[in-house]
Design goal:
The complex is a heterodimer of chains A (334) and B (95). Chain A has 334 residues and is of the alpha/beta class. In chain A, 40% of the residues lie in helices and 16% in strands. Chain B has 95 residues and is α+β, with helices and mostly antiparallel strands. Chain B has a single domain (2-85), classed as Beta-grasp domain (Ubiquitin-like (UB roll), Roll). Chain B has helices at 27-37, 41-45; strands at 2-5, 19-22, 56-60, 63-64, 80-85. Classes of the chains: A alpha/beta (334), B alpha+beta (95). Bound molecules: pyridoxal-5'-phosphate (PLP).
């Protein structure tokens, strides 16, 4: 590894690197759900270049078939609900979602032949609505001014009023959510770093990713530092992340599991998302930008203390989920 | 007075009010007068240079001010002005 670092800074990539890439064996599966998880881990070798002795690595969660980290939670939530019989007799799964979870539920539902209904604020972008509808999902709109918390309230009310028609898995309170990461993301990171991981840094939405991964890594070695990332203010633009002090606190969130929290500004996260694209060739979403900015902050702290480290973070989804509208598309439906 | 719709994360500045009435001829004036009435709110909407933060969308009626005259967009008494963060599934400018 040290050799690779030394080589990389002064010589172009050797042909052997390209050869290794092209001959990597592609896997074959019987069902799309088997492609969820086991995501690649990629070195952010340009971004960590000014941090000698510290490596930053990122989990490519955009490589899941639904395009985000939420495929893991959705698959586990649905398979656990099926095993308990919660989805028997045509019961529809209804949940609130800021987008990625909706796509993930829709994909898993379509693959398993299960009906899905989603509550989302009506100001979600048209592509988001279309992609979930394309899987056959029913969409119910909530007030855009109430944000994701407004969608949660409506999903809950629907399921309470019609318990024989709807099953409400509530990703914010469902242990299957973090268990997907305890059994998946955590062990994968440990294996992919050959046990060298020293820090895990990721943003908190439902907190499933950080809770499950941190619990697993701490069970393996309590000295691995697990750090949550939250927007620095209630008014933010790091989509997918929650400012917990001003939100409904997810019941699965347990602050005591974390070693620290980093408060991230939207501008810093957005700028880093752009830099990851231009400097690493990875076009990722804003929460991924926030995660990498936080990982770099941790890496710089280690450098200041003269310490070594292997910092792992998460690229939650791809940037093309967040395209700005073109001028001629400027009419919005509220 | 124009009606200003306040998103949930900013209602701590408006004592929980979802809508407030503000006198203004332009969006710039509206944000200034909003700050006078509800100190602290401007910093959440605008950056140090006074521009609307990249992740905040301001609508006059149905139109995003970025596609009108930005802070110079005219505001009439009958207008409804909405301040919408680009979160919760992505509003217009982010997704
Ligand atoms: C883009 C994005 N980033 C980050 C997260 C946070 O993940 P988690 O819900 O596991 O905390 C989510 C999902 O909520 C997301 O959609």
């Amino acid at each position: 590894m040290a050799d690779a670092v030394a080589q990389r800074t002064d010589t172009p990539p050797p042909a052997a690197v390209q050869l290794a890439r092209t001959t990597r064996t592609a896997i074959r599966v019987d069902c799309i759900l088997d492609l969820i998880g086991n995501t690649p881990l990629v070195r952010l070798g340009t971004i960590d270049r000014d941090c000698p002795a510290v490596e930053i690595w990122a989990k490519c969660e955009f490589a899941n078939p639904g395009g985000s980290v939420k495929d893991r939670a959705a698959k586990r939530i649905i398979t656990d609900a099926l095993a308990r019989g919660d989805l028997d007799n045509g019961v529809r799964l209804v949940d609130s979602t800021s987008g990625n979870t909706g796509i993930a539920y829709s994909l898993v539902g379509a693959a398993l032949g299960l009906p899905i209904s989603l509550v989302m604020p009506s100001n979600v972008s048209n592509p988001r609505k279309q992609v979930t509808a394309g899987f056959g999902t029913e969409i119910i709109f909530s007030d855009p001014m109430e944000g994701s918390d407004g969608a949660i309230v409506i999903a809950r009310e629907l399921a309470e009023a019609n318990p024989d028609k709807y099953y409400y898995p509530n990703q914010y309170a469902n242990d299957s959510n973090w268990r997907a990461h305890y059994d998946g993301t955590g062990p994968e990171i440990l294996a992919q770093t050959n046990g060298r991981v020293t820090h895990f840094v990721t943003g908190i939405g439902t907190s499933g990713t950080i809770m499950g991964t941190a619990r697993f890594l701490h069970d393996h070695d309590p000295s691995i530092q697990c750090i949550g990332v939250q927007p620095d203010d209630a008014m933010h633009g790091l989509e997918g992340l929650k400012h917990i002090p001003s939100s409904l606190v997810p019941p699965i969130y347990d602050e005591s599991v974390l070693d620290d929290t980093i408060w991230m500004s939207t501008e810093v996260g957005w700028d880093m998302a752009e830099r990851i694209a231009s400097d690493e060739g990875l076009f990722v979403g804003h929460s991924a930008g926030g995660n990498v900015a936080a990982a770099l902050h941790v890496a710089r702290g280690l450098v200041e203390q003269g310490k070594r480290g292997v910092v792992v973070t998460v690229l939650c989804d791809r940037g093309d989920r967040y395209f700005a509208p073109l001028t001629w598309e400027k009419h919005y439906v509220w | 007075m124009a009606t200003v719709r306040i998103p949930t994360p900013l209602r701590k500045y408006t004592q929980g009010a979802e809508e407030v009435q503000i006198n203004a001829g332009t969006v710039r004036e509206l944000i200034e007068n909003l700050e006078t009435a509800h100190p602290g709110i401007r910093e959440r909407i605008c950056d140090d240079k006074g521009a609307v933060r990249r992740f905040v969308n301001v609508f006059v009626g149905e139109e995003d001010i970025r596609f009108l005259d930005n802070l110079d967009t005219a505001v009439k008494d009958s207008d409804e002005v909405s301040i919408v963060p680009a979160i919760a599934g992505g509003t217009t400018t982010t997704s």
